[in-house]
Amino acid sequence: MAEAAIELIGINKSFGAVRANRDIALEIPRGTIHGIIGENGAGKSTLMSILYGFYQADSGEIRVNGKPTNIKTPNDAIAVGIGMVHQHFMLVENFSVLENVILGAEGEALLKKSIAKARSELHRLEDEYGLEVDPDALIEELPVGLQQRVEILKALYRGAEILILDEPTGVLTPAEADHLFRILQQLKEQGKTVVLITHKLREIMAITDNVSVMRQGTMVATRKTSETTVEELAELMVGRRVLLRVEKGEAKPGAVKLAVKNLTVRDSRGVTMVDDVSFDIRAGEIVGIAGVAGNGQSELMEAVSGIRKAVSGTVMLDGTPIDLTGQADPGELRDRGLAHVPEDRHHVGLVLAFDESENSILGYHDKPQYLKGPFLNLDAIQKDAQEKIEKYDIRPANPRLKTANFSGGNQQKIVLAREIEQDPGVLIVGQPTRGVDVGAIEFIHRRLIAMRDQGKAVLLVSVELDEIRSLSDRILVMFAGRVVGERGPETSEGELGLLMAGVEHKEAAE
Amino acid sequence: MEFVDALINILNSTIRVSVPLLLACLAGLYSERAGVFDIGLEGKMLAGAFAGAAAAAVFASAWIGLLVAVLVSVGMALVHGFASITHRGNQIVSGVAINFIAAGSTIILGQAWFQQGGRTPSLPPEGRFGEIKLPGADALRDVPVIGQLYSGLLSGHSLLTYVAFLAVPFTWWVLFRTRFGLRLRAVGENPAAVDTAGISVAWLRYRAVICTGILTGLAGSYMALAQNAGFVKDMTAGRGYIALAALIFAKWKPVPAMFACLLFGFLDALSIRLQGTPLPLIGKVPVQLMQALPYILTVILLAGFIGKAIPPRAGGVPYVKER
């Protein structure tokens, strides 16, 4: 067995009363790709922050290449060859790639020489690892995939031998993610050690050599990836058996609930985002819209929900048209039985500074059951929130807690509970499980299937192909604003992937 | 000929009026580029002016006055830094507090020390920065236009005026050509990027705030030791705020900052010049309106003419390490 690049022994770390890491032991062999998985809040990021010197462990030892090392600041970590690619990029947006790369590693007081040196070094890294990026481009003008590449270059420029990536694919399209994995593979072949933190099981299976699972601050298992299965890892992560495939019966489609005809939407710059799209959704079926993010799904969803102006086309809800001027009254649409779970729960779905109970009635706060004359009936609202908390297993079970203090999965459950419990006829859901843990994903999927079985029409938009395939009764694929195909749920991932890439545009999507 | 004289006259006073604006504006630039908003430029200038005048009066030396002015101003900048960097306080509140402290304490201390109703004693020539005649200024005085410009406009200013205008290219060079400048700009945009690169956010911001203190100290010194001969209560009269407006107008860039300050200075000089002179078509305009003109134009310019001014992204936000 190769010598360990990193060895962690008995790491403990507490934040107040919360024990984020307990007695962590971990060995990462040199020249391998090592996955660390766990649900949100399992302590993965804390552990890596300790390794990168962002925090100091309360106790325990870190050995780098067999030597006990005291890492107090990111500088110490960089000095022993540890580099980190953070989940939220640590880049200065209006700086050039070069400026970002040299920041903190300038060498001398004047910039001229260090910029020249970085320029030639970037050329070398480009040749060696295929990490192409224009050194003079501004970060804000680069797509996220390239921004991430700059983060990797930053680490390599500082001589990193051990590269930690924290949830690197969260912001990437599938094609970008594949490209990233190829780069990581190449880094491994050059003898670098890669640590990949994620909660996506597929990524672990696809690329890692070994995988360690964390749960509630402890390291519960380390496995050779080739000797484990997705099911085993999911069970280790959650601590109980998880159904990864949702079980569902045959759909029994009824009358058309939502009819979209020739819908065209342009964005604020006048670019056509949705191009002459038509489809129907019947009662008792889930229609999934697959596509790489940015191909018009968001705009379609917003237009159908009446919050974005459409240039032309009609949308009929139960046979009556929806106002598509962008001036529709969302309250009226709710009254007509159209519920919308927006993609971006932080900005559109929730007011994070409000209590859980306030968010759980937002938009429905003028319903008589929540009112007492002109005032809010706070007792009724609390009671209602408490019921939803129990039904949806929202944790912590405290309706008075500020919504910002809930985890992403629980915030999503708050939005879903609010919309589903109003018993809408049509539910439009965007990215229902983005940033949500495996256990909660299972729950959310079962709720959506239950909606369908109650005879509701569900429009599901998601960039997770697995989710689309396991939930939908029909799949529409969007590419460049158009619906380029309709398929059944049994369609292979490869075929859908080709459609999503626009087939003949395959090279462009790579 | 008379027109050229009048023009040079106005431009000359434009320069004189612009200098404190320019120094304060550059001062604000250092701080705000590093992500620390500073509404307390006014207070630091005022405190600097008072401290400089008091020290110059006691020691009869302009240089000691300058030194004390800078020290006091840097001290106040550090208070602002302590509140907003170390203790992550609200930067606007801290800045306003600095303005109040300066406005009140200069009068109280001035009265207690000199008993002249809050003024400092009139400074002797050695307590002031005199006018510097550039070589050949007298000889060239009679050469039309070029000579007039040289002797009437470029020559004959105090040392601090030249320092202020040289500080413009110097600031540009620091910001865009040095390591310190790169980091300073980075910390105002994304302090987390600086932190993860292994650089101390707090120390970097403190250094920026110290630069601000030095420059506001120079601005105060100019007003008390060069433009005037001593401190008069409230002598900065809102220039710190105009400097902030100029900074926004210039989108936090040094060279545009100079032009913005010259523009505001020009409006000021023009309003002084036009006081009491009847204007064609309009006739005699009340003095008060002329005095208000630069401020009215400031509002109009800021409201309509600068387009989108994007402040440093991390401006006003204390840096807290995220989990």
Describe the protein's architecture and organization:
The complex is a heterodimer of chains A (510) and B (323). With 510 residues, chain A is α/β, with parallel strands linked by helices. Chain A folds into two domains: 4-238, P-loop containing nucleotide triphosphate hydrolases (Rossmann fold), CATH 3.40.50.300; 256-351 and 424-509, Rossmann fold, CATH 3.40.50. Helix content of chain A is 34%, strand content 26%. Chain A is built from 18 helices and 22 strands. Chain A has helices at residues 44-51, 74-79, 97-102, 111-129, 144-157, 174-189, 201-207, 230-238, 297-304, 330-335, 345-349, 356-359, 378-392, 408-420, 438-453, 465-471, 493-500, 506-509, and strands spanning 4-15, 18-29, 33-37, 59-64, 67-69, 82-85, 162-166, 193-198, 210-215, 218-224, 256-266, 272-282, 285-290, 312-317, 320-321, 338-341, 371-372, 375-376, 426-430, 457-461, 474-479, 482-487. In chain A, the strands form five sheets. Chain A has a six-stranded mixed β-sheet, with helices on both faces. Chain A starts with a strand and ends with a helix. The model of chain A is unreliable at 505-510 (pLDDT under 50). In chain B, 70% of the residues lie in helices and 1% in strands. Chain B is an all-alpha fold. Chain B has one domain (2-241). Chain B has a two-stranded antiparallel ribbon. In chain B, α3 runs antiparallel to α10. The A-B interface holds A 15, 45-46, 49, 52, 54, 73-75, 78, 84, 86, 88, 90-95, 99-100, 102-106, 108-112, 114, 154 and B 177-183, 185-186, 189-190, 192-199, 313, 321, 323. Chain B: It is found in: Cell membrane. Chain B: This is ABC transporter permease. Chain B: Its main location: membrane.
Short recap of the structure:
Chain A: It comes from Aminobacter anthyllidis. The complex is a heterodimer of chains A (about 500) and B (about 325). With about 500 residues, chain A is of the alpha/beta class.
Explain the layout of strands and helices.
The complex is a heterodimer of chains A (510) and B (323).
Chain A (H helix, E strand, L loop, with lengths): L3 E12 L2 E12 L3 E5 L6 H8 L7 E6 L2 E3 L4 H6 L2 E4 L11 H6 L8 H19 L14 H14 L4 E5 L7 H16 L3 E6 L2 H7 L2 E6 L2 E7 L5 H9 L17 E11 L5 E11 L2 E6 L6 H8 L7 E6 L2 E2 L8 H6 L2 E4 L3 H5 L6 H4 L11 E2 L2 E2 L1 H15 L15 H13 L5 E5 L7 H16 L3 E5 L3 H7 L2 E6 L2 E6 L5 H8 L5 H4 L1
Chain B lengths: L1 H32 L7 H19 L2 H25 L4 H24 L16 E2 L4 H4 L5 H9 L2 E2 H19 L1 H11 L1 H6 L4 H27 L11 H11 L4 H21 L12 H18 L19
Antiparallel strand pairs in B: 1-2
